[in-house]
Design goal:
The protein is 38% helix and 18% strand. By secondary structure, the chain is α+β, with helices and mostly antiparallel strands. The strands form two sheets. The chain has a four-stranded antiparallel beta sheet. It has a two-stranded antiparallel ribbon with strand order 1-2.
């Protein structure tokens, strides 16, 4: 007997619901999450569904025989354009004006990882917090929507930190460039 969750749906039913929604969206979910093969918890399902609802609809074209839909759109290619560094995006919760993020480039081309930047303190580097993979894709899409350059500049301007390495900017020249001398290549 399957466990029935608070929503009245089992983990497998939630996975099927996600698969149905994912079929019509441009998204960055792993295949096992998007195709309904992997049962999910209610909390994970909530995050994934919110992510998918914000994703653009897929442009679907039929192949010559008319049997296989072909997906077009930016997809992973757009995310691959986001360089490693620090970013600010409009706050999704409305509790703040901006949310702050660190993007790291993975070993494989086009792979990106995101951590939340938590403010406060006088540490040399910002405090980072892990976030779930679905949340990371939401953030990467938010960076794309805000504009890569704008999101980087907003981080540097608001946090007075380098948009590449996150270290405090201590002089007017560095703040104007939004990078310290090492990241600018001045040293």
């Amino acid at each position: 007997m399957a466990l029935v969750l608070g929503s009245g749906l089992t983990g497998a039913q939630l996975a099927e619901k996600i698969a149905a929604l994912a079929a019509g969206k441009q998204h960055q979910l792993a295949a096992y999450l998007a195709d309904g093969r992997h049962p999910v918890t209610p909390a994970a399902a909530d995050g994934i569904i919110r992510y998918l609802e914000r994703c653009p609809d897929r442009a679907v074209q039929q192949d010559p025989e008319g049997s296989m839909p072909q997906v077009t759109g930016a997809g992973r290619e757009a995310i691959a354009d986001i360089p490693g560094g620090f970013y600010a995006t409009p706050s999704r919760t409305g509790n703040n004006d901006l949310d702050f993020w660190k993007v790291t480039e993975g070993r494989k081309p086009g792979v990106r990882f995101v951590k939340r930047v938590i403010g406060g303190g006088d540490t040399k580097y910002p405090h980072l917090v892990e976030i779930s993979r679905p949340e990371q894709f939401l953030v990467l899409n938010a960076i794309l929507q805000a504009g890569i350059d704008k999101a980087r500049k907003d981080y540097a301007d608001n946090e007075k930190r380098c948009m590449k390495c996150g270290i405090h900017l201590t002089d007017d020249e560095s703040r104007a460039a939004r990078m310290g001398p090492v990241c600018r290549g001045d040293r």
